[in-house]
Specification:
It is built from three helices and seven strands. The protein is of the alpha+beta class and 158 residues long. It has a single domain, classed as START domain (Alpha-D-Glucose-1,6-Bisphosphate, Chain A, domain 4, 2-Layer Sandwich), CATH 3.30.530.20. Helix 1 crosses helix 3. The longest helix is centred in the C-terminal third of the chain and has 25 residues. The chain starts with a strand and ends in a 5-residue tail after the last helix. The relative contact order is 0.23.
């Protein structure tokens, strides 16, 4: 399954949105990788198992489900998560890309790839795809909300 969507971070026509800088958004995305418990309500434990320049590996525990992922960082531009397939989890990837098409405009693009097939119209698996996409979108909106709250508290600098 491929799923992609865009969240507008800064909209100069919406005075209700406090603008974020690229640096603030970037620091928020790094924080999401390093402290996922602040972004995932049902996460029981997260352990960083390897950290190198521009890369880290983690183990996440959700009850009895263990998820291992690798995360690559392109500073101020992109974060890419790759989840290792296991007996408990099918694996997949998420890429979050910061886009600034013009001054004052800032977006965050989310691109998911999973082993779920969207081709077999009537099977049980494909019936859940709209719900999975909605859950991804909701989680991403929540991520942006948490980053905004962090920025408002001054946790992300300027």
């Amino acid at each position: 399954m491929h799923f992609e969507h865009l969240i507008e971070i800064n909209d100069p026509n919406n005075p209700m949105l406090t603008p974020l800088s690229v640096a603030q958004l970037w620091r928020g995305l790094i924080h999401r990788a390093e402290s996922p418990g602040e972004f995932l309500d049902n996460l029981d434990d997260a352990t960083i198992t390897l950290r190198e320049e521009g890369f880290m590996e983690r183990q996440l525990r959700f009850g009895s489900l263990l998820v291992h992922d690798r995360i690559w960082f392109e500073p101020q531009r992109r974060v890419r998560y790759e989840t290792t397939p296991s007996e408990q989890h099918g694996g997949g990837s998420l890429t979050m890309t910061i886009e600034q098409p013009e001054p004052g405009r800032l977006f965050l693009r989310f691109v998911y790839h999973t082993p779920l097939s969207e081709q077999n119209g009537g099977n049980e698996e494909t019936q859940f795809i709209p719900y999975i996409k909605a859950a991804y979108r909701d989680a991403d909106v929540h991520t942006v909300r948490v980053i905004r709250e962090m920025a408002e508290r001054g946790d992300l600098g300027m």
